Amino acid sequence: MAANILIVEDENAILELIALNLHQSGFNPLRAISAEIADSLVKNTLPDLIVLDWMLPGMDGITFAKRLRANSDTKKIPIIMLTAKSEEDNKILGLNSGIDDYLTKPFSPKELIARINALLRRSSPELTDEPVNILDLTLDPLQHQLTIKGKLIQIGPTEFKILHLFIKNLNKVFSRNQIMDKVWGNKSEIDDRTVDVHIKRIRACLANDGYDKIIRTIRGEGYSVSEKHLS
Ligand code: CA
């Protein structure tokens, strides 16, 4: 479940440096050398985050960012802007173009990865990499593995994402809408009932070990996961 990160950068050396670092950090890098190419990539893949150079041939980064923000399918995708000069900083902040963060070139790849992780934690908590657990149940997003008491449990990718979201936010009540938003993102061909179907499947995966009880249905509100529900 590696996050798809789209890099829009016309300087090939920088593009490849970023792609390499993203890959080494467990992300899936997508490459575009212009905003026009990025535009068609975004429509097909809906990346989880975009690293966007400001100065590009053709459409510039700011214009492209504004276009993304104006479209309901893409307005929530976090954007980190790359700028060439520090004097541009104030302009970026003043432009109010919906940029979530920015870095001035030259920047350290380590810093970029840290900023990406920080933004993804906010926008897609199910996509960060560290294993999470509740009692003897552990989810490892990098390996895409669910274990209970060390025993491997089969689980589908969507069920994995939902369970991961719950365990990263123990005791929080999620409405069906919030779950759809976090797990399916902007694709809206799903409805409330779909969420219920997946919750049912998660419970079935956990039932043998009695962990199905960690998921409680809260009538009229949604779902919540807590170890308290076990007792
Ligand atoms: Ca450039």
Question: What can you see in these coordinates?
Answer:
The protein is of the alpha/beta class and 231 residues long. The chain has two domains: 4-127, Rossmann fold (3-Layer(aba) Sandwich), CATH 3.40.50.2300; 132-230, Orthogonal Bundle (Arc Repressor Mutant, subunit A). The protein has eight helices and twelve strands. The chain has helices at 12-24, 35-45, 61-70, 88-95, 109-123, 157-168, 176-184, 192-206; strands at 4-8, 28-32, 49-53, 79-83, 101-104, 132-134, 137-140, 145-148, 151-153, 173-174, 215-218, 222-225. The strands form three sheets. The chain has a five-stranded parallel beta sheet, sandwiched between helices. Strands 6-7-8-9 form a four-stranded antiparallel beta sheet, covered by helices on one side. A hairpin with a 2-residue loop joins strand 8 and strand 9. The longest helix is centred in the middle third of the chain and has 15 residues, at 109-123. The radius of gyration is 20 Å and the shape is elongated. It starts with a strand and ends in a 6-residue tail after the last strand. Calcium ion is lined by residues 10-11, 53, 55-56. The site of calcium ion has 5 residues, from loops.
